Amino acid sequence: MSRTAPTPQGPRRAVVVAVGGVTALGLAVAVALPIVVDGRRSSAAQDLHADLQRVATAQAAWKDEHGTYSTSLHDLAVPTARTDVAIVSAGADAFCAGAYDESTRTALFYSSDDSWSTHPCG
After folding, report:
1. What global pTM score does this model have?
2. Within-domain flag for 2
3. Which domain of life, per UniProt (predicted)?
4. Which of 40, 79, 80, 116 has a CA between 20 and 30 Å from the CA of residue 97?
Protein backbone atom coordinates (compact mmCIF):
# COMPACT_ATOMS: atom_id res chain seq x y z
CA MET A 1 0.00 0.00 0.00
CA SER A 2 1.57 3.25 -1.06
CA ARG A 3 0.87 6.55 0.52
CA THR A 4 0.60 9.77 -1.39
CA ALA A 5 1.19 13.14 0.12
CA PRO A 6 -2.00 14.96 0.94
CA THR A 7 -2.88 17.78 -1.40
CA PRO A 8 -2.79 21.24 0.16
CA GLN A 9 -6.18 22.45 1.21
CA GLY A 10 -7.63 25.78 2.23
CA PRO A 11 -5.21 28.70 2.69
CA ARG A 12 -2.16 26.66 1.67
CA ARG A 13 -3.70 25.77 -1.65
CA ALA A 14 -4.64 29.42 -2.24
CA VAL A 15 -1.03 30.50 -1.60
CA VAL A 16 0.32 27.83 -3.97
CA VAL A 17 -2.16 28.85 -6.69
CA ALA A 18 -1.42 32.57 -6.18
CA VAL A 19 2.35 32.04 -6.33
CA GLY A 20 1.95 29.96 -9.48
CA GLY A 21 -0.22 32.66 -11.07
CA VAL A 22 2.22 35.45 -10.20
CA THR A 23 5.10 33.38 -11.56
CA ALA A 24 3.24 32.74 -14.83
CA LEU A 25 2.39 36.45 -15.14
CA GLY A 26 6.01 37.40 -14.50
CA LEU A 27 7.21 35.01 -17.19
CA ALA A 28 4.66 36.36 -19.67
CA VAL A 29 5.80 39.94 -19.03
CA ALA A 30 9.47 38.91 -19.28
CA VAL A 31 8.80 37.38 -22.70
CA ALA A 32 6.48 40.07 -24.08
CA LEU A 33 8.27 43.23 -22.86
CA PRO A 34 11.41 42.86 -25.01
CA ILE A 35 9.23 42.25 -28.07
CA VAL A 36 7.28 45.47 -27.45
CA VAL A 37 10.46 47.47 -26.73
CA ASP A 38 12.23 46.05 -29.80
CA GLY A 39 9.19 46.95 -31.91
CA ARG A 40 9.25 50.54 -30.65
CA ARG A 41 12.99 50.82 -31.28
CA SER A 42 12.63 49.39 -34.75
CA SER A 43 9.86 51.86 -35.57
CA ALA A 44 11.90 54.76 -34.15
CA ALA A 45 14.96 53.69 -36.15
CA GLN A 46 12.87 53.59 -39.34
CA ASP A 47 11.51 57.09 -38.62
CA LEU A 48 15.01 58.43 -37.92
CA HIS A 49 16.34 56.85 -41.11
CA ALA A 50 13.48 58.32 -43.17
CA ASP A 51 13.98 61.80 -41.63
CA LEU A 52 17.69 61.75 -42.38
CA GLN A 53 17.10 60.44 -45.89
CA ARG A 54 14.83 63.47 -46.53
CA VAL A 55 17.59 65.76 -45.21
CA ALA A 56 20.13 64.08 -47.52
CA THR A 57 17.86 64.51 -50.54
CA ALA A 58 17.23 68.17 -49.70
CA GLN A 59 20.95 68.78 -49.09
CA ALA A 60 21.82 67.37 -52.53
CA ALA A 61 19.32 69.71 -54.18
CA TRP A 62 20.59 72.67 -52.08
CA LYS A 63 24.20 71.95 -53.05
CA ASP A 64 23.29 71.75 -56.75
CA GLU A 65 21.71 75.19 -56.52
CA HIS A 66 24.08 76.95 -54.09
CA GLY A 67 27.41 75.12 -54.44
CA THR A 68 27.58 74.21 -50.76
CA TYR A 69 25.56 72.28 -48.22
CA SER A 70 23.13 74.16 -45.95
CA THR A 71 23.59 74.51 -42.21
CA SER A 72 19.87 75.13 -41.69
CA LEU A 73 16.93 72.74 -41.76
CA HIS A 74 14.73 75.79 -42.25
CA ASP A 75 16.51 76.57 -45.53
CA LEU A 76 16.00 72.99 -46.66
CA ALA A 77 12.27 72.99 -45.73
CA VAL A 78 12.46 69.33 -44.75
CA PRO A 79 9.37 67.81 -43.14
CA THR A 80 10.38 65.44 -40.35
CA ALA A 81 8.51 62.95 -38.20
CA ARG A 82 10.15 64.38 -35.07
CA THR A 83 11.59 67.67 -33.90
CA ASP A 84 14.98 66.29 -32.85
CA VAL A 85 16.68 66.48 -36.25
CA ALA A 86 19.67 68.74 -36.78
CA ILE A 87 22.45 69.58 -39.19
CA VAL A 88 25.56 68.75 -37.15
CA SER A 89 27.97 70.26 -39.66
CA ALA A 90 27.92 71.45 -43.26
CA GLY A 91 30.32 73.00 -45.72
CA ALA A 92 31.28 73.04 -49.37
CA ASP A 93 32.33 69.39 -49.49
CA ALA A 94 30.34 67.51 -46.86
CA PHE A 95 27.56 67.59 -44.32
CA CYS A 96 26.45 65.58 -41.29
CA ALA A 97 22.93 65.39 -39.92
CA GLY A 98 21.61 63.68 -36.81
CA ALA A 99 18.24 62.62 -35.46
CA TYR A 100 17.18 61.51 -31.99
CA ASP A 101 14.11 59.73 -30.64
CA GLU A 102 13.53 60.66 -26.98
CA SER A 103 11.12 57.82 -26.19
CA THR A 104 13.60 55.09 -27.13
CA ARG A 105 16.81 57.09 -26.69
CA THR A 106 17.83 56.14 -30.20
CA ALA A 107 20.21 58.35 -32.17
CA LEU A 108 21.22 58.05 -35.80
CA PHE A 109 23.61 60.13 -37.91
CA TYR A 110 24.06 60.46 -41.66
CA SER A 111 27.15 61.80 -43.40
CA SER A 112 27.27 62.95 -47.01
CA ASP A 113 29.83 60.25 -47.76
CA ASP A 114 26.74 57.99 -47.61
CA SER A 115 27.50 56.53 -44.23
CA TRP A 116 25.10 55.81 -41.38
CA SER A 117 26.20 55.65 -37.78
CA THR A 118 24.97 55.70 -34.19
CA HIS A 119 27.99 57.88 -33.37
CA PRO A 120 28.22 61.58 -34.20
CA CYS A 121 29.93 62.50 -37.43
CA GLY A 122 31.34 65.84 -38.43
Report:
1. 0.64
2. no
3. Bacteria
4. 40
